[in-house]
Specification:
alpha+beta, Arc Repressor Mutant, subunit A, 2 domains, three-stranded mixed β-sheet, elongated
């Protein structure tokens, strides 16, 4: 195998916790058939359709989040909902699945990963931030998304209070979120 192909793949995977998609490889000039060959030779492992992981790359603590964002293949998913609440450490609830958001109408022709929940919504750039090398909804958008899917109001209230206390958003924003959820601002 040509050395520069491995270097190209490593350069892509380095910023993605060891993962690379066949679409990214193709965009970098590497034919997807080479990925299959590298997987057969043990240099890569196939983690899902069109997503590969470099075998010698250390397994990251948040690998499922990265794999989940790359799973849609032609477009990155955005970590959202309960997964984003947990990631921002404004909730103690550990979701049993990774939640991602894709644009409305984006169709994936295969079943989601067993640990994945797919939501669809328009996400303007102002509602997306980057953390740990993957896209994630902002704390305010995350709380609104959780409201929309009827997450327990006590969990959302706690997230608002913790988000305010940690400085993720200011008092007027916290009051606005509390008003949206409960009809009143934070009690003094």
């Amino acid at each position: 195998m040509r050395r520069n192909v491995k270097r190209i793949l490593y350069d892509i995977a380095e910023d993605q916790m060891g993962y690379v998609t066949s679409a990214q490889a193709r965009e970098a000039g590497v034919h997807p058939a080479l990925l299959v060959q590298l997987a057969q030779r043990g240099w890569l492992e196939r983690s899902s359709h069109g997503v590969y992981r470099l075998v010698d790359f250390p397994i990251a603590k948040l690998w499922q989040y990265m794999e989940a964002t790359l799973w849609p293949y032609r477009r990155r998913g955005v970590i959202s909902h309960q997964s984003a609440l947990h990631f921002f450490e404004i909730s103690d609830v550990l979701p049993d699945k990774v939640h991602i958001t894709l644009p409305p109408g984006y169709r994936v022709q295969r079943s989601p990963l067993t640990y994945l929940v797919v939501h669809q919504a328009v996400l303007p750039p102002s509602d997306i931030t980057g953390r740990e090398r993957f896209p994630i909804t902002t704390p305010v958008r995350t709380i609104r998304d959780c409201m929309a899917v009827h997450v327990d109001p006590a969990i959302i209230e706690d997230a608002i209070l913790r988000g305010r206390a940690s400085g993720m958003f200011d008092q007027p924003t916290a009051d606005q979120l509390m008003t949206e959820l409960f009809g009143h601002a934070i009690a003094a």
